[in-house]
Amino acid sequence: MSSNGDRVLAAGTGDRRRGKTALFLVACGCAGAAPHWLDPSRSLIPSLTLALVLGGYSLSTTLRGSDASAVPANSTPANDGDGISSPETSLAADPAVIESFASWPKVDVVVAARDEEAVVARLMERLGALRYPADQLTTWIVDDGSEDKTPDLLDELKPQYPNLNVIRRQRNAGGGKSGALNAALAQSSGEWILVLDADGQISEDQLERLIPIAVMGDWSGVQMRKAVTNADTNLLTRVQAMEMAFDALIQQGRLLGGGVSELRGNGQLLRRDVLEACGGFNEDTVTDDLDLSFRFLLQGARTTLLWNPPVREEAVETISALWKQRQRWAEGGLQRFFDYWPGLLSNRLTVGQRRDLACFFLLQYALPVLSFADLVTSALTRTSPVYWPLSIVAFGVSGVAYWRGCRRCSEGPALPQPDPFSLLLGIAYLSHWFFVIPWVTLRMAVLPKRLVWAKTSHRGTEETVKA
C-alpha cells in the first residue's frame, strides 16, 4: 500500500478533462465511422472481433460465482440455489463468529444530508436500533445547507440519540457531497467509516455481521449490494431493482476474475487509514464513490462487494429523475478514467486488473459512443450499421446477468422474478445508456465543468415485505 507521500500521485485533479473528453469523442467517432468505408465484405470485421473479445469477457464475468475470498478460509460457503456460493452469508449468519469477535473496532456512520426531511427520522431510528457496542459507534450527519425541515428534525432527534453528532454546512460551502463527507471525516476518529445515504436502510444486525467480514477478510473497503425498496411502484423502479442485482453480480464476477470491484456510495464501509492515505473524498468530482474506487485501487487497497447483507435504498420513480441521475453517474465514471489513466496503465495494477478495466471501459463508455457514430454515419452514407453484432452480444449477456442475479438467494426486498417479460424489459431499459453516454461525452467535451451536488430526492419509501 502506498504511503501518505504518494497522495499526489493517486489523487485526481480534474486537469484538462475537456481536452481528454474531446479526444475520446473524436476517437470513438472515427472508430464508429471508419468501417463504413471498408469493403462491404470486411465492414463487420471490427465489430465481430470486439464482439468475440468483449463478449467472452462479459460472459465469463457473468457466469462466475460470488467472491469466496471475502471471508476466512475456514468458513463454509452456503449455496444460494443457483450454483453460486455465498460465503459471506454463512459467515455473517454464524453466531459463533459474532461471539468470538472479542475486539469490536470503533465505527463512524457518516451521512451527507441535504433536504432530507422525508427520511432523516427513519434513518436515525434504524441506526439507533443497531446491535453494536454503544461506546464504539458514533453517527455523524452533515446538514449540507438544507432548506426544508431537516435542521429542525435533527435538533429534535439529538436528545433521543446520544451518539448523534450534527455538522452544519452552508449550502454553498463547496465540494459537493465529497465536501460534506470530508467535514465529518475531519471531526470523527473511528477506525472504520460506514457511508450511508439519507434513505439508506440497514437491519439491526448489519454492523455486527459486516465488521467481521471486513476485518477477518483483510478488506480496506466493503460495498454492500444495493437493494431497492420501492420496486413495486412502477416498471421503472422494477427494472432498477433488477439492475442493482445485475450490477452486484458483475462486480463480484470481475473481482473473481482478477479484476476490479467498485464502491457504490451508499452502504460502503471504509478503513479510515486507507481513506486518509488517499487524501479523503475528492471534492473535484461529481461521483465520490467511483473516484474513490480508483484511488483505493492505486493505493493497493483491497475492496469487495457483498451480496448479503444488502443496504436498502429508493429507486428514482420518473424518467426525468433517472435522466438527471444517470448523467451524473456517466460524467463521474468518465472523469475517473480521464483523471487516473496514467496510474491505470502502470505496473501499479496487475495484468488482470488492467484487462478488466479496459474491457469495462470499452463496454460501458466506448460502445455507446461508437454505436451513435455508427448510426449517424449509416444515415449519412446510406449504408447499413456495422456495430450491431457487438451491441447484440452486449445486450444478450446482460440478459444472462439479469437472470442469474435475480435468481440468487437475497436478503432484503424481494427481487423481481426474471420471467421473459422482465428480462426483455430490463434489456430494453439498458438502452438508455446509449443516449446518456454520448450526450454526456459531448457535453463534457464542449462545456466547462460546473460541480453541483445534484442529489436524488427521497420520499421515505419503506421496504415492501411479501408473505
Give structural notes.
- This protein has 467 residues and is α/β, with parallel strands linked by helices.
- The chain has one domain (1-105, 191-467).
- 50% of the residues lie in helices and 10% in strands.
- It contains 17 helices and seven strands.
- The protein has helices spanning 7-10, 17-33, 45-63, 87-93, 95-100, 120-128, 150-157, 176-187, 206-216, 235-256, 272-277, 288-298, 319-344, 351-381, 388-407, 420-430, 433-446; strands spanning 107-113, 137-144, 164-169, 192-196, 221-228, 268-271, 303-313.
- The chain has a seven-stranded mixed sheet with strand order 3-2-1-4-6-5-7, with helices on both faces.
- Strand 2, helix 7 (150-157) and strand 3 (164-169) form a beta-alpha-beta unit.
- Helix 10 packs across helix 16.
- The longest helix has 31 residues, at 351-381.
- It is globular and about 75 Å long.
Quick one: biggest sheet? 7 strands, mixed
Order of helices and strands: HHHHHEHEHEHEHEHEHHEHHHHH
Given helix and strand content, the structural type is alpha/beta
Largest sheet: spatial strand order: 3-2-1-4-6-5-7
Q: What is the total tally of β strands?
A: 7
Rg from alpha-carbon coordinates: 22 Å
Shape: globular
* Low-pLDDT residue spans: 1-11, 67-87, 89-93
How far apart lie the N and C ends? 47 Å
Proportion of helical residues: 40-55%
Mean pLDDT: 87
Number of helices: 17
Query: How many domain regions?
Result: 1
Approximately how much beta-strand content do the residues carry? 5-15%
